[in-house]
Amino acid sequence: MPAYRPPRIPSSEITPEAVWTRRRELLKSMLLAPALLAGCSRDSEAEAAAAAPEAEPEWGRPLSATTGSPYSTREAPTRARDATTYNNYYEFGTDKADPARTSGKFKSEPWSVEIAGEAEVTGTFTLEDILKPHALEERIYRLRCVEAWSMVIPWIGIPLGELLKRFKPTSKARYVAFTTVERRGEMPGLRYPVLDWPYREGLRIDEAVHPLAILAVGLYGRTLPPQNGAPLRLVVPWKYGFKSIKSIVRIDFTEKQPATSWNLSAREEYGFYANVNPDVSHPRWSQATERRIAGDGFNLFGNRLKTLPFNGYAEQVGSLYTDLDLRRNY
Ligand SMILES: Nc1nc2c(c(=O)[nH]1)N[C@H]1C(S)=C(S)[C@@H](COP(=O)(O)O)O[C@H]1N2
Ligand SMILES: [Mo]
């Protein structure tokens, strides 16, 4: 498959990879400033400035995208190294380090996605066809896992709603279901019956077309590595991470609420909605706080943060749920 061409975007709006390194350095110096005020010597400042920035791992291909989305957070991003080596992708194993280690055989090219169900336009489309009409955008989002850790990740992708509209969903389409690829030869975790494979997820259609929901094709200025869901994955930042399904091969418009993998496996622990909610504990742990993996492992305020309703996106998405009892519909 020829490498797909990113859309032409004025160079002033493009974040080259080097900017990520510079942003990290800037953040470091901002974090160091209060320590200097508190009377640290200038030597330690010079030492910190001289410390060589850590080389970041490379993967895939560079991607251009428009930056400065009003939906992007200004919080310190997680290091690319952490976001690409501490993963949940059970098809590659259940340890956080497994997906980066065991996904070497995974082929994300060529790729196609089947569109089915309650829509006027259905069929199988190549990834190039899926992406062609859309401009790639950077979205820096918080990702809150149901396990109570979180990251800040600069995704590159397209608004999910803009893609879904192209298939002209019928009036019967009330939900959208997503399915992950299932390839035993390339995904060693599929040997174990941890979940009822293939991994499946779903959204109500009004959630799916909300402008915060994106389909990501990259992170940190490059295409997605396998462990983060190459070549195409969902990112729904106001919901627990398990809703953000990876390596999508099928999108179905449905009338009924679709079955979803974690809900099938433990109904009382993982609801269909899975909106981040500090007031509803997981049966085995509290969701009131989270461990933030970000800021070069150096965070003046400690890395335990209060979890916010809808993961901090309540202002944008709260109105989707005014008719819903969020305790019952966890
Ligand atoms: N197919 C598939 N998608 C998946 C998962 C998985 O195991 N399989 N794990 C989910 C969980 S629990 C989380 S927290 C996020 C993690 O995404 P990241 O590794 O890119 O940070 O992916 C989600 N998507
Ligand atoms: Mo998760």
Classified in CATH, the superfamily is Oxidoreductase, molybdopterin-binding domain
* Rg result: 20 Å
CATH class: Alpha Beta
CATH architectural designation: Alpha-Beta Complex
- Helical coverage, percent range: 10-25%
The total tally of domains equals 1
Low-confidence segments: 1-51
Strand content: 15-25%
| Helix-strand string | HHHHEEHEEHEEHEEEEHEEH
Overall pLDDT metric: 87
Question: What is the count of DSSP helices, taking H or I runs of 4+ residues?
Answer: 9
Ligand list = the ligand Nc1nc2c(c(=O)[nH]1)N[C@H]1C(S)=C(S)[C@@H](COP(=O)(O)O)O[C@H]1N2, molybdenum atom
* Structural class by secondary-structure content: alpha+beta
CATH topology: Sulfite Oxidase, Chain A, domain 2
Major sheet: 7 strands, mixed
Through-space gap between termini: 42 Å
